[in-house]
Amino acid sequence: MTPSRTLATGRRPMIGRLTFLAVVALVASACGGSTGGPTTKTPFRIGVIMPLSGSLASIGNDALAGIETEASILNRQGGILGRPIEIEKRDDAGDPNRGRAAAQDLIENQHVSAMFDDVLPPVMTAVLPLLTQSKVLALSGTGNETVADPTKYPYSFTYGIPFAARPASVVAALEKLGASRVAVISSSDSNGVTIGDLDVAAIRKAGLTVTGYEKYDLTAKDVTPQLQRLKGGNPDTVVYYAGGTLGSVVMGGVRDLGWNVRILADPASTSSDLAQTVPQELAGQWYGVAFRMVARAGDTEVDPAFRGFVEALQNQHRSFTNLITPVAYADQLKLMKWAFDQAGRSDGVAATRALERLKSSSLPRGYLMWVANPRYSGTAHTAINGDFKDSFALIRLSPVVAGTYKGQPLPVT
Fold first, then answer.
1. Could you tell me which residues come within 8 angstroms of residue 235 by beta carbon, excluding any fewer than 6 positions away?
2. Mapping DSSP to helix (H, G, I), strand (E, B) and coil, where does residue 86 land?
3. Region of poorest pLDDT, from 33-37, 184-188, 282-286
4. Predicted model pTM
5. What structural domains and CATH numbers belong to the chain?
6. Residue 52 in contact with residue 64, Cβ under 8 Å?
7. What is the pLDDT of residue 40?
8. N or C: lower Cβ tally within 10 Å for the chain?
9. What is the pLDDT of residue 8?
10. H helical segments located in 233-365
């Protein structure tokens, strides 16, 4: 494994300052004195262990792009604790053994102060015991709550919107669209069943009628039988969960049935390339609940809340798969900065305690791009108690611009 290092130092040094420091050094030398050591501050090293190659390389590289972009932005503002952020990246290729070896190298040889752990639970569980032993703060974008159990991994946190917090956005969208009779279809894997069950319960709780609920296998190439049964219930809106290419299977079935019904995609379904999943002839009846960074108000202008980051991301990393992952990991880096700055020192235990106080503390307005405040506590290292009221948007099928689609914010109460 060849180590790779990124030092995002922000501004270029000023010639005048360099000249001044050189004069000081010469005077001190002539007087037999010393300048007291190096003139540059020790970098604040952060480790990144990601699948940068293999089947999940797009996720790993999008995460790295977000981290490196935000590091450059923060370094122009003074870095962490006044020290320039240095990113030490390692490719685990989705292999737990490689991940553990990378973590050991980053801890013992690079002396990282914090770590971004892989999104894969098998890799994370191989790495986390080392981080726990060394008391290294770790953040990850995974939705797996077991890797953020503070009784097992006291310095590990996850960032993102848990499944249980998402149905409120679906209900808000249904109410905005004037829906009253709703059918639900989702995949039959554990994630699909969880999301489908939560959506059904939330829709009923809101006083809307659930006319049918169907599930389909992840390997399905045709879901028209399930859609035909849902059609028999005469819904005015169909809510679907279908990650990745499965969206095209569901939407293809709606098209093949010639079913003129309003379609609403769950947030997890809107992270794929919508041009590939939604047939153009169904564009007029398709809506999607998306994470807010995916929506833009105009034809080409990205939301001002994300514009600066998106421009920096495009300048530093010309291509990225979607905007969700880079934004999520940029936010996590800002959480690291906040924690260490609050602690006042490069100490994983102190930074952890700072994050655990977010349950009753406030972050600066607009500090994070996705979740206003994850509200971690000593017993919750996931964002289960987070503030998500401004985290969603309602989008329509439109040309993709910098990973965004035309839409509008969807406030959730």
1. 181, 182, 183, 211, 212, 261
2. strand
3. 33-37
4. 0.84
5. 1-162+299-387 (3.40.50.2300), 164-298+391-409 (3.40.50.2300)
6. yes
7. 59
8. C
9. 58
10. 246-257, 274-277, 304-316, 324-343, 348-356
